[in-house]
Amino acid sequence: MAEYTEMSYTYGSGMRDRAMILETLVLLKDMKKAGALVQYLSQGLSSQRWYSTQTVAYTLMAVSKYLGDQKATQTFGFSYAVSGGQSTSANSKSAIMQINLPAGGSNTSLTVKNTSKASSLCGWCNVVNPPLDRNQPRPTTSKLRLPTPT
Length: 150
Prior knowledge:
Elements: H1 14-27, H2 31-45, H3 53-69, E1 76-82, E2 88-92, E3 110-114, E4 124-129, E5 138-143
Antiparallel strand pairs: 1-2, 1-3, 4-5
Helix pairs in contact: 1-2, 1-3, 2-3
């Protein structure tokens, strides 16, 4: 499917069309094809490319339907270290996990290692900086890319 962006009345795009295909594959219970499409959509969303709100919303909705239909059969695990410190292990059977990390300065780094049999692990790092004017919070986000085992 060729990439395109339609900015008139449909707000369509190749990415949104693939999300619609994913939603259909989930309804048809074709999880093998759906899984490959989820990988493609995830890579697109984690790129630096701009997508319309319509495309992002539909893609997230389709991926959530895929994940919501999956039964956790095994625990996923990973370890993480903040700024080269001691490694901490974590695991869960839930598809989503949140960990609050200690605050650090501008040179803070986060290292994550997938320790489970799962071929991929997705992560998001949300950083909130102290407000400049102390009246308004100024959240910033940073995309976190995790290596997958080969």
